[in-house]
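Pilot study result, target chain (214 residues):
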Amino acid sequence: MKCPGQELKKLYLPMRGEIVSRLDEFKQIWKTGDEEGIFAELIFCILTPQSRARLCWAAVQNLKRENLLLKGNKKRIIRELEKVRFKYKKAEYIIRARKQFSGGGKSSIRSQAAFGNAYDAREWLAQNVRGLGYKEASHFLRNIGLGEDFAILDRHILKNLKLFGIIEKISVSLSRKRYLDIEGRMKEFAKKIRIPVSHLDLLLWYKEAGEVFK
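Predicted structure:
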């Protein structure tokens, strides 16, 4: 088998500019984006477990367009989640998150969540927001530019970590301890092959999905 570092470097070099550009876009969401945009990223990450990212983002866009993200009732939300798995449960999570982070029809994540420290923010999100585990909390923070040091251990990433011998097997679910252990291994691997972990995450996603997305 080829050295994974060489294989990934070859894939990485022509993609580096696009990856940097995407990460810069994520940072702008927190720095200059509106509250609804931040809330939309949270809902996207709530929807993604066991569902395709593109379909989840399309559902979020539909909710925004129909003015349902902050105001829609459960029945109307479910209708927009037709292509998302576990739509009934995830509709409930959306409504819970809305009550948790918004008032008067406006999202207020910036003022209601202590996001000064990304690691503390991830702990808080994973423990307090229904529908978010460590993967989803890491994903959300990365997508708003606050979690570049996190690994988003979805099936694409885990598949490649196993392929490259970083982990021995892919678990159906990850405990907090196991998640942090694998994240640490991925960081060490990223350091060894000299690709920033945030870049490596998007690179492995690109390797499997064929695009740099979210």
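One observation from the pilot: Residues 176-193 form the longest helix (18 residues). A full batch analysis is planned for the follow-on phase.
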